[in-house]
Amino acid sequence: MDSLQLTGGIVIFAATAILLMWRPRQLNEAIPAGVGGLLFLALGIVDMNDLRSVFNVVSGASVTILSTIVMSIVLDSIGVFRWTAFNIVRISKGSGVRLFWYLNLLCLIMTMFFNNDGSILITTPIIIRIVRLLNLKPHQSIPYLLSGALVATASSAPIGVSNLANLIALKIVGLDLLTYAKFMFVPSMAAISAMVLLLFWHFKRAIPRRIAVLTVPAAAPTSGNYVPHGLPINAAKHWFGRKDASRASFHPLMPAEEQPPLLEWNRFAIAIGIVVLTRIGLFAASDLGIPLESVGLAGAAALIAARWIWLRQSPKDLFRKTPWSILIFAFGIYVVVYGLHNMGLTSLLVRGLEPFVQSGLVHAIGLFGLMLTLMSNLLNNLPSVMIGTLALTTFSLDNHTMQAAYLANILGSDIGSLIAPFGTLASLLWFHQLRRSRIPIAWGAYFRVTIWVVPITLAISLIGLYLWTIWLV
User: Fold this and answer.
1) Is pLDDT at 12 greater than 50 in this prediction?
2) SS3 helix, strand, coil % of the chain, rounded to 5?
3) Bridge-partner residues for 378, per DSSP?
4) Which of 252-261, 317-326, 383-392 has the lowest mean pLDDT?
5) Which residues are bridge partners to 456 per DSSP?
6) Model's pTM, two decimal places?
7) Which one-letter DSSP state was computed for residue 256?
8) Taking a C-beta distance cutoff of 8 angstroms, is the pair 67, 300 a contact?
9) What distance in Å separates the CA atoms of residue 48 and residue 53, rounded to the nearest whole number?
């Protein structure tokens, strides 16, 4: 590779990483990734054979993630998530502390059943709706919003299909979903539990002890403006604006557009059942060698068909709401990373790290966990986990050590990456949604929490991975 290609590749990668972190004017992340990939191709750093290899690795994982996002869109359109938001507040029974635990549990479940980006897109609007419904002050809202974002993103570690980077990297190292879950579920869940406890300890003074109580009457009016029972008049301004708030009737029911939808239990059970069966099917498909994307597409098609039968709603809205740009982003960023691999970055990492990795299991886990944490917070976790995984495959390691180092790789990219606001795509999506909703949370406020919570959580996960791996083997 000549000096022009080397210099050009470094400049292109730096520009791509900066634009992904900065996102001027809400620039879609697919644009810098796609343009970066095209420039690497134009310079000859990657060729058509490389593109075919990238497509084989990325396509199935991207389709699987997109199918879960489609499923989340369908569930939202039939009212499952609005119903969830209302009932989380209702079962909290006036306790802000109980609401904190329920919301974090919701974020965990959403990520494990969908994926981290989809979970952020689902749970953040739910939490925003709840804090506005309850008329919480800004300092009272932050514990729910920030803890939900951190838990939703970190919860992609226990299950391989909950993160695009996890899925792509799984295929590279030849690890199936069942083996992944066998080694990762316990240590990562222990770490996530520790994270929630640390967040609760940090925010315990800001979490309101008492919140409004919501109740649903046996018979409710079908029109007019209504606000939940017990809310002060200021809360109505969030629903109707300052002009109409004084005319709002105080009734234990949300306004029409925010009412918990009248979901029949049978429909709710069928919808959730499809999601659960799809998730189980992904694990079964991994064990049987069936392409994961076929199971994901089947689950999405089943939910779309169910919505058509129940609501006579065509799938046209799904084409508009589905983030197709994720395909361009995943393909483009991986082409850039593959180009860095061709430029010798992974060889450089191998020469520098191999003596430490060869020292034993504990060194391999610690080194890759810390390395991916550093790289993810500087470059974003998706290109970082690709670089780390490609480097890992070039080491002369026994299968057990390589898999353990790979899992540490994932912990660094899924949990360690949360220190910086731009460490993950999910974090960037979270900040974007807050800006759209005019909720100001500065990067400094985010950093003051993550700078100590995330390193402790990462340490627990890496130590847990080592101890759990030793115990299993």
Assistant:
1) yes
2) 75, 0, 20
3) none
4) 252-261
5) none
6) 0.76
7) G
8) yes
9) 9
